[in-house]
Design brief:
mainly alpha, 7 helices
Length: 143
């Protein structure tokens, strides 16, 4: 997705409601000079790509985001990663660019995707057994 498409989608997500080309245009014009037809074309392209849905309202359309910004970011990352000729190297390079805060978020995300891990609990008597009888195996083992 190009810079202009991203700027348009940012507005659609920000308002979190169906928007018109005119509304997006007026907001974008606060930052840059842009034509109505350009915004209309970008929203039409986003509709064709499946990022927005639209409903006719008179002679115009109202556009609404199909998915969240997080899903969009994930799709961009997946697209870039899948185009790499060496996905592992691409991930290593990507992780190397991350801040510590982003790495923490990544670890949290991996934990969520993998589900709760159930670490094997150590036998409660293992330390005592080792001290009192160093040659014996923990309960349930070696039998």
């Amino acid at each position: 997705m190009g810079e202009l498409e991203d700027a348009v989608m940012t507005r659609v997500w920000k308002w979190n409601r169906p928007v018109t080309v005119r509304e997006v245009l007026e907001d974008l014009q606060q930052e840059r000079s842009i034509a109505y037809t350009t915004v209309m074309t970008v929203l039409d392209n986003l509709h064709q790509k499946g990022w927005v849905r639209r409903e006719a309202e008179g002679r115009a359309y109202r556009y609404e985001a199909v998915s969240t910004r997080a899903a969009y970011a994930a799709a961009l990352m997946n697209e870039a990663w899948s185009q790499s000729d060496n996905p592992a190297a691409a991930l290593v390079a990507f992780f190397g660019m991350m801040s510590e805060e982003q790495r923490v978020a990544l670890r949290d995300a991996v934990r969520i995707v993998q589900g709760p891990e159930s670490p094997e609990p150590a036998p409660a008597s293992a330390p005592d057994t080792a001290r009192t009888n160093p040659g014996s195996a923990p309960e349930g083992r070696g039998r």
